[in-house]
Amino acid sequence: MPFPLGRPLGVADDPAFQLDVVRGALGMLATATEPTIEDHPVEAPTEGPEVWACPLNLAVDTDDSLAGRVRAEVARLRPWALETRRARGRTLFGASGAGPDDVDAVVEALLAVAESGDVESPPPGDVEWAHPMPLLVRHLVDDLRGVIHEALASQPGPSPDHDELSEWIFGGTAFGELLLTLGDHLTAASDAAPMAGLVRGFVIPEGHYRGLSNFEGIPGGYRRD
Amino acid sequence: MVRLGDLHPTEAEHILARTAAMPTIEIDEWRTPRPLAESTVAIVSTAGFHRRDDPPFTPGAVDFRLVPHGVDWGDMVLSHISANFDRSGLAEDPNIAFPLDRLDDLAATGEIAGVSRWHYSFMGALPAPQMLEQAGSEVGRLLAADDVDVALLVPI
User: Fold this and answer.
1) 3-class secondary structure for B82-131?
2) What residue of A is the nearest CA neighbor of B46?
3) Which of A150, A207, A215, B139 could make an S-S bridge to A84, C-beta 3.0–4.6 Å?
4) d(Cα A204, Cα B149) in Å, to the nearest integer?
5) What residues of A are in contact with residue B79 (Cβ under 8 Å)?
6) Chain B contact for A48, CB < 8 A?
7) Domain ranges of chain A
8) Quick count: other Cβ atoms within 10 Å of Cβ A49?
9) Model confidence band, residue A222 (pLDDT cutoffs 50, 70, 90)
């Protein structure tokens, strides 16, 4: 299945394409006479412009602090995310332990960690988080990134792929700046708490942390292999 | 699996190093499987998919979560630890990595005999595949006891 990570059956909402992939895999049982590897012969169709661009203007002119800009970005994206949830009737939001409507709690938790630099204590709030710190940071970030996915899915035009979305996030959004700030705190804490350095590699996609690879430059010297 | 050329070069280099370190697996005698039209099929996924009230996966997890046939997709979340794969497809259509509805389609047309009542969800991203040997054997025994003939392994 030569498709991008996260899309092993190739195309979302395309039952015919997915059935071809499943039939191809199961069909090998009828023809193979020994352990066999075959590539699915059909590429997943691609669409849209070569360079995706977010149609929303996320710049703000009222509160230019990091917290103010992050809140403003989420406020602009949220109505679109709600449209997607209404259309789908479901959401993946909540791996952090937050309920589907706890978007503000997730935002405030991340901002609290960014402001304090404390990656060991649970952030304040009423949510019963599903993870201890600092691992919670990773799932808070993923929940918020999921809101962005949902928002962009409702907007006119094509949706970005993983790389395009990461380029956009780290190319000037407040959310990207927040993630880099969290990454800095996790790196700083990793001498005393090796898990913090590990979590940085799970928060920021490869190639987007200050010129370092996911698990590079961690004072504890963590190696993932 | 994704092509190495479609990964960030650091990720590709890492996967190649892992591949070189993989253990050699002795191959048992080949057994001709039952015809698909007489087979019950189960999904074994490494997407880190599970129900909202299941314990989330943690780094280095070698356990698994049960996904029942007929699960409400709205009850599912994803706690896979990696930051390097795209969740948007799964958010749009869970079948892109957990093709339960596609198995139902094949059962409806008689191409397979049936769909298992249970499916199994792991989180990948482990440093060594042999870490999953115990849980993998356990799932194999569970599938056999449940009269499942085919496990459709779906990596993320």
Assistant:
1) CCCCCCHHHHHCHHHCCCHHHHHHHHHCCCCCEECCEEEECECCCCCHHH
2) A6
3) A150
4) 40
5) 95, 130, 139
6) no
7) 1-46, 66-203
8) 9
9) very low
